[in-house]
Design a protein that fits this description.
Number of strands: 18
Mean pLDDT: 95
Oligomer: single chain
Low-confidence stretches: none
Length: about 450
């Protein structure tokens, strides 16, 4: 019978070994990541949740126990030397195999580069994610989410969890997955927008980290059909500039956390954190016209930014200000959802923005319509069926404060931060128009 004592044995982590410098043999568990065999001994790199640990195995240790891919419990004596990784190495005195690959590892994941096509990499994700650079990328992504949550909690936001099966799409358009929900029509949520706005009437400030779904038939380097959105909504704002200022402070806080606690991963990936101390802002129309004039191209779509324009505008802002970021404000109403507040000075535009980062849009946000009559009037003007949105409008009918918010695409932000060429590299198990596995 298992007896629970209430006490938990403290494991020997890399940080604890380096800090406490134990003088007696210790036990460490992990996976054999790489083995370099010499004449009478071998260097063994043990992969653990917090990183890799260098061990030295003498001829008395069974080589089969230390085959790459084995999960092992090793015992050994720490030897402290400033030249060793983390300031020590573990001289092994024993190794117990806990599990082993069926027929050896299918790929040499210890290599710096795996020399795989992206498609092969994605197919082999259960294994390729164990490679150190892949692990590092998603640890950095973890840090972005940690920073997002920590900052917003500190600013008085409440975390919420909203439905992903919904009655109506928040963004409109045809890019929405339809479901048969027990004989009724339903959809996968394009965003938590309606629920965020509703919850502003409850908590004033709310945020969510969760999946969103877009049925876009795009096979590009920047689109996914399921991605993770970092959303927040805040009430009692004076203008949409308040939302932009909150995001600026948020990004600063996230990058400070990454620098402080993810330095090893950043170094392994060669990531240089951007300066978000001041993010310039340009109105949509001005940004398009200035970039087209400077780089000598013709504007084809007056209502939206094409990917090439995002790159050119980002280049222009970087040349003029040195910033990797740019807020593009006052998007045309024609390309913004029905809940976007129109600019009172020119109703052709909205009090909304995108954030460009190193040539790509990573955030969309703005001020929302909070007045019931104003919202209904805009929906009627757009030919929308008011009854379809009765639950959403109930929050407006019962009073909402002036509010606004945004959504950040986690994979896009990770992709641009790491300098990846394809957004699927920044998704653990990406879903696109071709991929449903692994």
């Amino acid at each position: 019978m298992l007896t629970m004592t209430g006490e938990r044995t403290q494991e020997w982590t890399i940080e604890r070994i380096a800090r406490e410098k134990p003088q007696a043999p210790i036990e460490v568990k992990g996976c054999v990541h790489n083995v370099r065999r010499m004449a009478n001994f071998a260097f063994v790199i043990l992969r653990r949740r917090e990183g890799t640990m260098q061990c030295v195995a003498g001829a008395d240790i069974d080589p089969a126990a230390l085959a790459e891919g084995n999960c092992v419990a090793v015992t050994g004596e720490p030897v402290f030397d400033a030249r060793a990784p983390h300031g020590f190495e573990l001289r092994l005195t024993g190794a117990q195999v806990l599990s082993r690959p069926l027929e050896g590892l299918e790929l040499p994941i210890h290599k710096y580069k795996l020399d795989l096509t992206l498609e092969k990499d994605l197919e082999m994700r259960p294994l390729t994610l164990r490679a150190l650079r892949r692990r590092a990328l998603f640890k950095v992504q973890e840090g972005i989410v940690r920073g997002f949550r920590d900052f917003l909690h500190g600013e008085g936001f409440t975390e919420i969890h909203t439905p992903k099966i919904v009655r109506a799409g928040a963004e409109g358009g045809a890019n929405i997955f339809k479901l048969d929900y027990f004989g009724r029509r339903a959809y996968l949520a394009q965003s938590p927008q309606f629920y965020k706005q509703t919850m502003v009437g409850v908590y004033d400030r709310v945020f969510e980290v969760g999946p969103v779904f877009r049925a876009e038939k795009h096979a590009t380097t920047r689109h996914l059909n399921e991605y993770t959105s970092l959303d927040f909504e805040m009430g009692f704002i004076d203008s949409f500039a308040d939302v932009m200022q909150m995001e600026t402070a948020l990004l600063q806080s996230v990058f400070r956390l990454l620098a402080a606690e993810y330095a090893e991963e950043l170094a392994l990936l060669g990531i240089e954190l951007p300066d978000a101390s001041r993010i310039p802002a340009l109105p949509f129309r001005e940004a398009k016209e200035r970039a087209a004039q400077r780089y000598g191209y013709r504007i084809r779509d007056p209502y939206d930014l094409e990917p090439e324009e995002e790159q050119k505008i980002s280049q222009m802002v970087r040349e003029d200000t040195g910033s990797d970021f740019a807020f593009i404000t006052h998007y045309p109403a024609k390309k913004r959802p029905f809940y976007a507040m129109d600019d009172p000075l020119d109703a052709r535009y909205t009090l909304s923005f995108d954030l460009l980062f190193r040539g790509m849009e990573v955030t969309t946000g703005g001020q929302r319509i909070h007045d019931y009559a104003q919202q209904v009037a805009k929906m009627e003007r757009l030919g929308m069926e008011i009854a379809e949105f009765s639950d959403y409008l109930r929050a407006h009918r019962n009073g909402l404060p002036p509010h606004g918010g945004l959504g950040i695409g986690l994979e896009r932000l990770t992709m641009k931060l790491a300098g990846a060429k394809n957004i699927r590299e920044a998704a653990l198990f990406p879903r696109d128009i071709h991929r449903l596995t692994p």
